[in-house]
Write a structure and sequence with these properties.
- The protein is flat, with a radius of gyration of 30 Å.
- A hairpin with a 6-residue loop joins strand 4 and strand 5.
- The two termini are 37 Å apart.
- Helix 4 packs antiparallel against helix 6.
- It is built from 11 helices and 5 strands, in the order H-H-H-H-H-H-H-H-H-E-H-E-E-H-E-E.
Length: 417
């Protein structure tokens, strides 16, 4: 096996493990709402059965409110896992209106599927890792169990020899293989009804979304204009002035070359120094447009470089299996750079951390510090610029910074840009 093949196999194994871990978390997370869905489904069945007696009519508003609340909770849960579901308009809670409401009918369809198939998949997501660990480690402790105890997690067999214990180990490997191979598909299957039935239907008024996109486009244009002004100011006040100084010094040195060679040589040294400073400032401006470190080392490496240059000890945890769009990586880089600059200048923190993860087509950033807190967008700390950069890519930003700290800056970006 060549080195390249070895690295590729290792990367494939790491991606598979990460996908299985994420799928397990999603399945177990869905198990909670699936149990609640089963409860609401049973309550709806009771209301339907007792409707002729009038009791069901009294239960109907309670069932509808529970249904809508649970659907909203499922959308929020999936959004945290990177599954964006555009919510519909608030559905009615009066029985007569709800019977004719398409959103309510879709939510009822999701309730049936999630309370049955979703519950089963969630249980599998919980039990498969437990069975894999139980059976996979059985040879380590099989002599400690009673003689009549079953060998496997499925209640079959009794271990009397090492061969029996190894058979349980093989079963544990099988559970793990099922989880690695089928876990992501099970997670997608569990989330599929919510993707299809909890999203806004084609008849939903999209005027709010249009207004949001219009505001996002305006923010993107504003951020672009601000960036152009920054670049122009950097070139005008920095590199251009240096180059003018170089021109003046070279002209003076040329005129002095014949009558005062020593003075001309001194002017040439000053011109060379000014040219070197102008070159350094031009490189700084170029890095500000699109840092080359992103292309050379990727987002994780670039953020590690920012953490190393930070004025306070900073830890970076990056889990980005694949490259995102260049605009997304550049925005993530500048967000972290500005955030760490704020930490070093204003927070009085003793340590900071940067966490970046890519899941489900979304890139999530979390910058935390243990400083004094009280960060304010109106305080000139650069947070307004960060928010505009994030909004330009249709991302979201949330800042938590109570007085006394700690401060947490969370940013969510679409990986595709």
């Amino acid at each position: 096996m060549t080195v390249v093949e070895g690295v590729s196999a290792r990367e494939t194994a790491v991606r598979t493990l990460r996908a299985a871990r994420a799928a397990t978390g999603q399945l177990v997370g869905g198990l909670g709402t699936a149990f609640q869905a089963l409860g609401v489904l049973l309550l709806a069945a009771v209301a339907t059965a007792t409707a002729p007696a009038g009791v069901g009519l009294l239960l109907a508003p309670l069932v509808l409110r529970a249904l809508h609340a649970l659907a909203r909770r499922e959308r929020e849960r999936l959004a945290r896992r990177g599954v964006d579901i555009v919510p519909p308009d608030p559905p009615p809670v009066r029985l007569r209106s709800a019977l004719a409401d398409p959103t309510t009918r879709r939510e009822l369809g999701w309730l049936v599927r999630h309370g049955t198939l979703g519950l089963l998949l969630g249980l599998l997501g919980l039990l498969l890792p437990l069975c894999a660990v139980r059976d996979g480690t059985f040879p380590l402790w099989w002599r400690l169990v009673p003689e009549d105890a079953t060998t496997t997690s499925i209640g079959v067999g009794t271990a009397h020899t090492w061969l029996d214990a190894v058979a349980a180990l093989l079963l544990g490997v099988g559970w793990a293989a099922i989880l690695l191979g089928l876990g992501p598909g099970m997670a997608r299957l569990q989330a599929a009804p919510a993707r299809r039935l909890l999203a806004a239907g084609p008849d939903t008024d999209l005027s709010l979304r249009v207004a949001e996109l219009t505001a996002t486009r305006a923010a993107a244009l504003d951020a672009h204009a601000t960036e152009l002004r920054r670049i122009e100011r950097s070139l005008h006040d920095g590199a251009q002035n240096r180059l003018v100084s170089v021109t003046v010094l070279l002209g003076a040195a040329r005129r002095m070359a014949a009558r005062d060679p020593a003075g001309a040589d001194e002017l040439l040294e000053r011109a060379q120094s000014a040219a070197e400073q102008a070159l350094a400032e031009l490189r700084s401006v170029a890095r500000g447009i699109l840092p080359p470190v992103l292309a050379d080392r990727g987002l994780a490496g670039a953020l590690s470089g920012l953490a190393a240059d930070c004025g306070v000890p900073c830890r970076v945890e990056a889990d980005v299996p694949e490259r995102c769009a260049a605009s997304v990586e550049a925005t993530a880089y500048f967000v972290v750079a500005e955030a760490l600059t704020n930490v070093a200048r204003h927070s009085g923190a003793g340590r900071a951390s940067v966490t970046v993860r890519a899941r489900g087509g979304r890139l999530r950033l979390l910058v935390e510090d243990d400083g004094r807190g009280g960060a304010d967008e109106d305080g000139g700390s650069g947070l307004t610029g960060i928010r505009r950069r994030v909004a330009a890519l249709d991302g979201t930003l949330r800042l938590t910074s109570p007085p006394g700290g700690p401060t947490a800056l969370e940013v969510d970006l679409p990986c595709g840009g």
